[in-house]
Amino acid sequence: MIANAAEIRKFTILSWGWLTIIFGLVWAVSWLVGVAIPLLLANVQADWARLVTEICQVLTPLVAVMVFIPINAMFMVLAERRALALFTVRKGPNRVGPDGFLQTLADALKLLFKEDITPRGADAFMFTLAPIIFFAPSIFGALPLLAAVTNNHNLFQVVNLPTGIFYVLAVSSVPVVGIVMGGWASNNKYSLVGALRSAAQAISYEIPLVLSIITVCLMAGTLDVVKIAEMQKGGLLNWNILGGGALSGLNKYFQALAAGQADAHQMLSQYYPDWGSVIATVVLIACTVLLVGIYLTGACAEINRIPFDLPEAESELVSGYNTEYSGIKFAIFFLAEFTNLFIVSTIATVMFLGGGDCPLPDWLNPLTNPAVTQPVGKFFSFFTDRIHLIDPSTFFPAIWVIIKVYALVFFAILVRGTLPRFRIDQLMAFGWKRLVPLSLIIFVLVTFAKGAVRLHV
Amino acid sequence: MATEIKSDRLKTDEMIINMGPQHPATHGVLRLILKLDGEIVRHVEPVLGHLHRAQEWQGQNRTWFQYQALIDRVDYLSGMFTSWALARASEHVDGTEVPERAEYLRVLASELNRISSHLLWLGTYLIDLGALYGFPFYPFREREKILTFLEEISGQRMMFNYIRIGGVQRDPKADWFKRVEAFTKEFPERVNEYEAIVTENPIFLDRTTGVGVLPKSLAMEYGVTGPSLRASGINYDLRRFKPYSVYDKLKFDVITFDKDGDTRDRYLARVREMRQSNEIIKQVIDMIPQGDIMAKTKKQNAGLRVKAGEGFAAVESPRGVLGCYVVSNGSDKPYRFRWRNPSFSNLSVLPPLLIDRPIADVMAIFGSLDIILPDVDR
Amino acid sequence: MTTETSQGKPAENPPTTGPFGQFLKDHGINSSPLPASSGVETLEVDSKDLTAALRLLRNSAEVALDFLVTVSGVDSPDTFDSVYHLWSYSNKNELVIKVRIAKATVKADYLPEVPSVAPIWQAANWHERETFDLVGIRYLGHPYLRRILNPWDWEGHPLRRDYRQPVDALNDKSPGSFR
Hints:
With 378 residues, chain B is α+β, with helices and mostly antiparallel strands. Chain B is 49% helix and 12% strand. Chain C is built from four helices and seven strands; from the N terminus they run H-H-E-E-H-E-E-E-E-H-E. Chain C has helices at 4-7, 19-26, 50-59, 123-134, and strands at 31-37, 40-45, 67-75, 79-87, 94-102, 113-115, 138-140.
């Protein structure tokens, strides 16, 4: 039936294999640093033990991110190559390790051992600094999201900020400085043109991107990513992508209906008292669906992916701002690009797709049914209660986050496999004449519609 | 005084960029010296010759038989046509009658080759527009099949050396025609697939509509030929205009557009030409007669001679009028070869098309002209 | 069939004036017919008449030879030929025009000189540059007569029959050589 079913199967196995390794490692490291060492030291009554415990707990998020980013980028590069091969009736890398499993590991090793060239006439200090400035924000910017994607787990609460999303957006606009720096320092005209393009593009597309996020924050009434994620709990109808919580009344109504409550209809009229609120709900749904589109477009432009990959437009500028880079510096650029893709997908997941929430409402979800959870919980009690290896309240949300984030990543790969590239003037026109007005209009619409309906009841 | 200083500081310089010869998108080794004002191209100078292999000089220093095998390299994507131009010019000078079956086989092989050449152009053109990873591999799927067909009759996938002076190299087996016919039946469906992805794609439309408009007068002034010329609205196809071989017996229309052609028209012209070639192949398979494939007077070995005289013959290659001017003095080596390469003439129109366009359009326009650099530099 | 072009022998039957030769004559331009080049009328035009003749042939509505297919240079035994193949975009006319510069008239260390037709046809621009590069015919009035296929500092004109390669590309051991 499907022509390349065998290839799809291989790709699936490969993806799940890599994901297991990535998150198994992150999990193990976080547990080791954040739980196991403090547990061992729990009975030691000494100042140094308390100090070590505190340091361990503070370090946990950082260590988790540091372990996660390189191997995740490796997986994403491999997944992208294999997926593009799938779309284009090829096989993709399939030689290194079982079925190409270790291809990017080999590539990464090769890049590490390559000669690190600084071109003649380049500003060596800036040239070296550029990839670092490009890469550092992807580590620090990701930290506040950790608590949101792990259902506010104790270990990661330290990095949560009350102004979380604001911080993430602020940090995510730093990498363009790295690009301009690298392009200028390379002493190469292609790099320079690419860097300036990147600056223009980042400034233009930051506005719709931030406006779309701000609109969501406006609906949620908070900048705290953990709170925004928590608000959306309770199934697909509660997610921000469908009206930013305007449908949560409907959700409640369905729940009551399923439970067989007699006053269910009354409930509906309580949440949606008049036509105004119904219209406002419809408007909100339309707005939020558009917002997701605006966000994804802006994010694509922000991280320089096709169709907005003008800064490194291969057929025009050779490789744009990273033309002159090689070896480890190029590897860092490469790593950061894929990490950025992961981070914007995570932001979209937290802000729009309910974070770690299961799409099914609680009353339909077998995993929250006590008849299922209690025996299973008893079976795993040694891991959950004694050594705290598994925290069920984090485990399932984390799996949902992984599924959602990588679905968005896959979508970005699909776009990359389909579309040609914009021209710079068309890119600017699209940004300033379409996206910015649209996001402003949506912002105003949401401001008014929000008053007529209760969100996240 | 203050304003003077200000204006002095705001002064911007033009930047000179060497695009190529090592550049991912110059289809080989073209070098364009671009003078840029920001992103806008203000001056272009193409520098040729990085792939110059002295094909004409080699023609004077090889025997006719040796040179026949060499000449496919001039345009490596459509080797049939260079062989054919050489064969036609030499036969003109020589007065050789080519058997009818050989003529049909030449048309068949050449039209297959035309499709494969356009398919490769289609894939690489989308790369030029920035669709680096997705679409470009689809045309290669069909191209592989065509190259396999051509390999079966000539023993080579690219440098065919199939069309010889006096006929063709060998007769395909009977089931070869059946397989080609089966391919022609499924091929239009494949072209529909490409068109579904590309033709109405909004970004593709943005990038191509109104870009690189080639007015009729400019095209005629620069001697542009082939699909690029027909997309500009000039009804000029050698196969129809001065029918050679058996093209006067085949039914097909010349694909023209009724306005000045832009990049998108050139794309459409090539896509339609693929469908048209497919129809021609179907007709040829129906009509092909039995008989000899090589003129009796021409032996295919070092003793191959062409009578003294001179002549010019041209064929309609995928890129335009591919001409060959032969001067023979009756010895074992040609006296003078002169190639009229379509890419050479088509490339000369590039500078006027690029002036005042953004740098992103350089590759969009250059790609749409379908230049093969070995064909330019020879 | 033997021709004068390459053999240097006189043709057996002197060629007769064709329609285009007659057309040029009617407009006061002298041309002498040459043996037909595989069936196409071939005219020899004096180099000083060339520009006028081509301009006339291109612009007249009845002839409309407006497609300059190629400009070729041939190093014939006695002459340097600059050959123009003219076609038409609107009708099936074909014509070959040759300008022949006798080798005896070319001074040593000078190139044979032919007026450029690049002002009439942009198409001739690169073809004439190539002919200059490979055969060594100087086109007077060309806007940018510079080598096109060979490197800009190449010596000699490779398609001359007496050309000898200045550098042995395969066995050049000189470290300063870039070839």
